Description:
2 domains, 5-stranded parallel β-sheet, globular, 29% helix, Oxidized Rhodanese, domain 1, 10 strands
Amino acid sequence: MSNPFPSLVSTQWLAENLGAADLVVLDASRHLPAAGRDARAEFQAAHVPGAHFLDLAAFTDTTSSVPSALPRPDQVSQTLAQLGVPQGARIVLYDDSAVKTAARGWFALRRCGVANVALLDGGLGKWRTEGRAMESGETQIKPAEPALLSAGVAAATKAQMLENLESGDAQILDARGPDRVFGSSIDPVHGGQNGRIPGSLNLPFGEVFNADGTFKSPDDLKDAFEDAGVDLSRPLITTCGSGVTASVLLFAAHLAGKDDVRLYDGSWQEWEADPATPKEQGPQ
């Protein structure tokens, strides 16, 4: 997919381009309940100048049986319009979350055909560490006209995951920590049993980042995938607990030049809750 706007921009680039008429910055922070953090309140206290708050907690399809399902195209269109994002605008997403939620926002937009969307490399943490400008409060929004969007095919359903277990067409890569993927106790994040979809490989999402929170180079990302057992010549499906950190791996694969990747949106939270789905626990 050709895209004139890069998928990843530096803090220096954003600082130099802030205020451009066709640029919209969105804070896509969302936190795990155990973190005890309020993403909207933190946004109101301090954010990149001119940014708006993309409420990922509400950016879900509540009509779906999938927990925290990706938003429908009409929801994406309406949300962007309400945030004042005109059609064709360049969008930069960032977060200040331990689970790097901006990647989830990136995927939700890209799968609906929003092409000019990038992540801020290093997120708000790097921006703040560098002493760059911040502002508080809410930025006034002028609503835009909704765009007509349609969903792509980059998300996998539970039924398709079951079919894939039979066919073996795509590799499955889990973004959770090995204690959750290979353990047999209770999942500390979503409840239910730890474990994995049979045959899953494991690449903890934190391993695609440098120490400063920026993404590793494309070559280093390829190495990370291959070290996890991924054959980069074959299709891939990423999964995790609820589809958030799986989005990080999907984005990292994109940076490495691999786009034949789908996201299992329901992830382990949906899979574990169904007594009929096959599961594995313990070491491979």
